[in-house]
Q: What sequence folds into this?
């Protein structure tokens, strides 16, 4: 009896919390519990807005050459200075945000789509299909990601679309394991058995009952993937196998013919990397916070290591 | 344990076969017109095949046979045209299109540089990540923990190639000092060689250290929640003993395996660092082969690296069981 009294308000509370909507609830918890995640969210929002409105924000075009600006240090008109060809670095950084945003979001989306197609289907149906796909993923994982990206980029050629395809599809295969194990874990649940008993077909069970429940896993994977996509694109462009030169990729701005001028104009080496570091930091922080908020195992609380607790108990 | 080892070794065979197929097919999927580009490129560069034509190049790459024959020849199961078995199984990875030397001997010459870089990076990563990771875990949710976690996130987020570029540019401007662009072999000048390797090694170690730090913290937190840690506390042991003797010893097993899994990251790192600091290792060789589209070298490197990773993973699995007696092999 007394137990029921205790339980009731908790349940009511849970329902009330639910009614706020999952996303709103997450946002409130982000602000309350994860200050660093909030910083990350602000950075991500800033990156997104800069990427969307590059045209209006940038004072000049990304490839506009102003001869007097050649190797010019930062000043009041050209806040970040100019590069070796006389292009305004601020404008190039702003347009670079658009490239990073596009690659980050579409690459991560492709990662999730491919990962789900490969992982969820393979985990759910099992059997020989699963075995074959898993051996393939095994062998793909033997190749260091950068080596794989570089080799494929050499074969299919440079450009924005190839890079999104390469990063997205190969990450989808690399990451399909996580989704697969989530689906396999889900399969053991009673409600899946119930759905099958009621007569739900295999495909319907996968689409209607399993996939919505692995959604948190997919969203966590997505946010963590965005940072990796941005960093990988920059790395490939830096090595000269990513987005070809006139386009202002942050990684590409650190390499190419500009490198010999960096001793004369060191700000050329400073800004793109700084922008990249801040963007990736923000995305990672937000991704971490979302994972912590969503994954009940990482919430702490019961069973958590606490020295003060132990010290108190020790004399007993 | 012996049956497990054998079973694990047998399980590697299909993966290994798929790896060779991926390496083989990736290069064979080059669109046909690339061959024309290669002929033109080689003619203008005046390489060994400058006076040859498309057919010679096709034959040199063995592209004139049916694809399954090509694969089996490359693997070393079927004889080459001259009747000799020269394939992967025989340890022959073909010849470079440009340097007219076997890929294996090119690789062997470059390996020591990458190995040295990798070892320096690994040592740096361990020295940085273990103390901070452990401190972060035993002082969870304190300012020290926040600082530790921030350091690890910064290490993960800051692109290594940017730090490396800055390390090339700023010391040169401020102090007129830059690392040497001419490779100094270890056998000639130990100090000079180390000076050359320490900076790239340290930067690589930082990137790995960031990930390792988080892993250390997570593993330590996991272990610190266990009952035997509470028992150790209730016995009245000092914190030092509880952490080092009881917690770290158990947390270190998964950490050790993660270090093994980090080999691919290490290889990716060498490609970038050797390119920036002009160190003649496997990474720079990969970069050169990719720029010159030297496909036999590219597939040779891919194959060797993939096999290396595969066997390191196998080793890690076996060592895991050897270190952790709780694991029972079935």
A:
């Amino acid at each position: 009896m007394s137990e029921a009294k205790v339980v009731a308000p908790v349940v009511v509370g849970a329902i009330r919390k639910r009614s706020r909507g999952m996303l709103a609830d997450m946002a409130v918890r982000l602000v309350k519990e994860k200050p660093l995640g909030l910083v990350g969210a602000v950075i991500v929002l800033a990156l997104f807005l800069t990427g969307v409105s590059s045209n209006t924000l940038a004072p000049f075009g990304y490839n506009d050459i102003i001869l007097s600006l050649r190797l010019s240090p930062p000043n009041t008109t050209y806040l970040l200075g100019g590069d070796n060809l006389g292009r305004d670095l601020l404008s190039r950084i702003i347009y670079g945000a658009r490239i990073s945003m596009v690659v980050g979001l579409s690459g991560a989306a492709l990662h999730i789509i491919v990962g789900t197609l490969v992982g969820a289907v393979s985990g759910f149906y099992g059997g020989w299909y699963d075995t074959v796909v898993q051996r393939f993923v095994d062998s793909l994982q033997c190749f260091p990601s950068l080596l794989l990206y570089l080799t494929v980029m050499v074969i299919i050629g440079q450009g924005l679309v190839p890079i999104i395809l390469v990063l997205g599809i190969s990450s989808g295969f690399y990451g399909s394991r996580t989704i697969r194990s989530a689906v396999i874990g889900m399969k053991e649940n009673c409600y899946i058995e119930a759905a099958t008993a009621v007569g739900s077909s295999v495909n319907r069970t996968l689409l209607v009952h399993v996939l919505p429940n692995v959604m948190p896993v997919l969203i966590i994977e997505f946010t963590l993937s965005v940072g990796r996509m941005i960093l990988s694109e920059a790395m490939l462009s830096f090595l000269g196998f990513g987005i070809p030169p006139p386009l202002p990729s942050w990684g590409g701005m650190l390499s190419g013919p500009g490198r010999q001028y960096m001793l004369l104009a060191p700000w050329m080496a400073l800004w793109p990397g700084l922008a990249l570091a801040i963007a990736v930091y923000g995305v990672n922080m937000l991704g971490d916070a979302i994972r912590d908020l969503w994954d009940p195992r990482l919430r702490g609380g019961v069973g958590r290591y606490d020295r003060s607790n132990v010290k108190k108990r020790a004399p007993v | 344990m012996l049956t497990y080892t054998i079973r694990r070794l047998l399980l590697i065979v299909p993966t290994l076969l798929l790896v060779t197929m991926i390496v083989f097919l990736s290069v064979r999927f080059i669109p046909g017109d690339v061959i024309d580009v290669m002929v033109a490129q080689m003619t203008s560069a005046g390489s060994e095949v400058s006076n040859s034509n498309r057919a010679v190049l096709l034959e040199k790459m063995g592209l004139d046979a049916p694809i399954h024959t090509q694969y089996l020849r490359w693997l070393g199961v079927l004889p080459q045209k001259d009747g000799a078995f020269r394939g992967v199984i025989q340890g022959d990875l073909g010849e470079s299109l440009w340097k007219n030397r076997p890929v294996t001997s090119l690789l062997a010459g470059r390996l020591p540089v990458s190995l040295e870089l990798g070892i320096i990076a690994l040592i740096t990563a361990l020295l940085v990540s273990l103390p901070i990771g452990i401190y972060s875990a035993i002082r969870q949710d304190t300012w020290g923990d926040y600082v530790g976690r921030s350091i690890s996130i910064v290490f993960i987020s800051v692109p290594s190639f940017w730090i490396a570029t800055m390390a090339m540019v700023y010391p040169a401007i401020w102090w007129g000092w830059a690392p040497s662009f001419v490779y100094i072999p270890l056998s000639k000048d130990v100090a000079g060689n180390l000076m050359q390797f320490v900076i790239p090694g340290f930067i690589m170690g930082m990137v790995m250290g960031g990930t390792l730090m988080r892993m250390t913290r997570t593993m330590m937190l996991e272990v610190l929640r266990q009952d035997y840690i509470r028992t150790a506390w209730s016995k009245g042991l000092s914190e030092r003993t509880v952490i080092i003797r009881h917690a770290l010893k158990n947390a270190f097993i998964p950490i050790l395996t993660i270090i093994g899994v980090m080999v691919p990251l290490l290889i990716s790192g060498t490609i970038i660092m050797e390119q920036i600091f002009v160190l003649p290792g496997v990474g720079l060789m990969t970069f050169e082969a990719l720029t010159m589209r030297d496909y036999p070298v590219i597939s040779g490197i891919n194959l060797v690296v993939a096999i290396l990773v595969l066997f390191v993973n196998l080793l890690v699995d076996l060592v895991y069981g050897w270190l952790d007696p709780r694991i029972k092999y079935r």
